Amino acid sequence: xxxxxxxxxxxxxxxxxxxxxxxxxxxxxTANWFFRASGTAGLVAKSISAYDMTMSDALYGHxxxxxxxxxxxxxxxxxxxxxLERLAEKRGKETTFxxxxxxxxxxxxNDAGECHGWVGLRFQTAxxxxxxxxxxxxxxxxxxxxxxxxxLGVIGLNLIHSAFFNRANLKNFIESLLDDLSSxxxxxxxxxxxxxxxxxxxxRLCALQLVKSGLTDATMFLPxxxxxxxxxxxxxxxxxLLRGSFDPVLxxxxxxxxxxxxxxxxQLQAKERDKVVELCEITMANLLRGEExxxxxxxxxRADALQQLGKTVLVSRCAEFHRIAAFLHRCTSEAKGMILSxxxxxELFKAKWSRHLQGGLLESFGRLFKxxxxxxxxxxxxxxxxxxxxxxxxxxxxxxxxxxxxxLENGRIHAVCCDDEKLLESTxxxxxxxxxxxxxxxxxxxxxxxxxxxxxxxxx
Length: 460
Fold this sequence. Notes:
460 residues, alpha/beta, Maf protein, Rossmann fold, 2 domains, 8-stranded mixed sheet, 6-stranded mixed sheet, 16 strands, 38% helix, 20% strand, elongated
């Protein structure tokens, strides 16, 4: 693996690459790498840092949030256009131009807030070509400001180097972003490509690879397929989340959301009810364990089905409920609800999910219910006895009965009604078997919009 110095030197010595740097919020740490290496004049056209808000607004226009994707895109547009305006005529035939920008909130004095930033690159893949944009969101996890600045500089350098020398392989591109770093120092929870050479690129694969490679715990994209940064998309919005494998998407899943929606909304103020974001979370825990039969094609099929139904998809590697709860707490301070089945409710009481916590089961539930999160439990029907088990009739393990009663009585756990008990009689495995066996009844269990996807997936 090349060192950061080697990467900077390689870029400096490439006579066909030339560009500008604009960095706000944590020093000019990326540009600094190229000044440390020899041959800087071969690469760096300009380096600027508009720290003051007045100057920043004068250059890039006013923004309601200075550390935002909106501000980053304005910076990229301004810096790239002015570079072409001044240099294209003189050296545009032999030069691939780029503009690197970031806007960052690093650790300040007596500051305990979230440290993060937007990092982007607009660049040509060949002289005179239309530009490509790469935009990513990073979280700076070091406690010390100087360490955060150093990490930011390295990740910016890695992005530029990969854009020019490592763009043929997505996995290598993504994993090289943490060269000379680690996931304990930096998290990348969004990566998006657009423009020249990426018209047919599926950014959802980026989302999957970020999770698989351990660069983030979760990432998300909209029904349109657009990849978004979770904390920005969920900022100050209530969230209702359904966990599942969605293999395939069932009418049951849609019913779980519909039946929970009203009860969850009643807990909100009237002005907040139209802001609720409904998330369908696909946990990649099975994929990360490398189990046979689970791969990229399966993931995209499930995601396509959810998007076809207008759902926002969250991709996570958080098997434990308290971990996905912590992720939601970080993204929004508003109300959060999780929808789950009786089966998953029973899982919450198993020791394996809290064995890494010093406080065991109590700590696990403490983290889960932090900041007002609530669980909305859908019933289960026993196939043999036809008994309907609800949150109210669920029997917790002997040593947790009083704990469960406390959660139920204090509104942390809510029972959700099912208006069509026939939906409870078949699982996703049953539906896939029915499709393979040619039983037409499966269509009563799957939304019509995704029949073709479900059939294609089951017969793979």
